[in-house]
Design a protein that fits this description.
This protein is of the alpha+beta class. The protein has 2 domains: about 60 residues, Signal recognition particle alu RNA binding heterodimer, srp9/1 (2-Layer Sandwich), CATH 3.30.720; about 50 residues, Signal recognition particle alu RNA binding heterodimer, srp9/1, CATH 3.30.720. Helix content is about 20%, strand content about 45%. It has 2 helices and 8 strands. InterPro entries: Glyas_Bleomycin-R_OHBP_Dase, PhnB-like. This is PhnB protein.
């Protein structure tokens, strides 16, 4: 299991990652736009980042531009992301984290594997991901 931060931006993720890459001497990796994915977003949003990672010595986090139907405010711009290899473990973890909280995206199969997003009963956002 691996747990790391996942930052959400309001359309300026690429600009922020460029800033952080320069600041921390890191590289932007695994860059994917909404154009690359089969996700329904307005055409003006297709070039925004659906996923990217910043990697360097001592730094590794993920980031994306939240879709227009996901309003951001102070407090929900960071999620904890959990990557697992075991589907049953992912299902159970999502069930327990979302219990008493709020489910934003049901844990289900996606193009890349299984994914779900929830806010736990303490107000912490979680993204559970099991690759294929």
């Amino acid at each position: 299991m691996k747990i790391q931060a996942y930052l959400a931006f309001n359309g300026n993720c690429q600009e922020a990652l460029n800033f952080y890459a320069n600041l921390f001497n890191a590289e932007i990796k695994n860059r994917q736009t909404y154009e690359d994915m089969k996700i329904d977003v307005p055409s003006s949003f297709r070039q925004k980042l659906q996923h990217a990672e910043l990697k360097g010595k001592g730094v590794h986090f993920m980031a994306y531009d939240a879709a227009p139907d996901t309003p951001l405010n102070n407090g929900n711009q960071i999620n904890m992301s959990v990557d697992l290899n075991d589907l049953d473990e992912g299902k159970q973890l999502f069930k327990e984290l979302s219990s008493g909280g709020q489910v934003h995206h049901e844990f289900r199969e996606r193009e890349w594997g299984h994914f779900g997003r929830c806010t736990d009963r303490f107000g912490i956002g979680w993204m559970i991901n099991v690759d294929k």
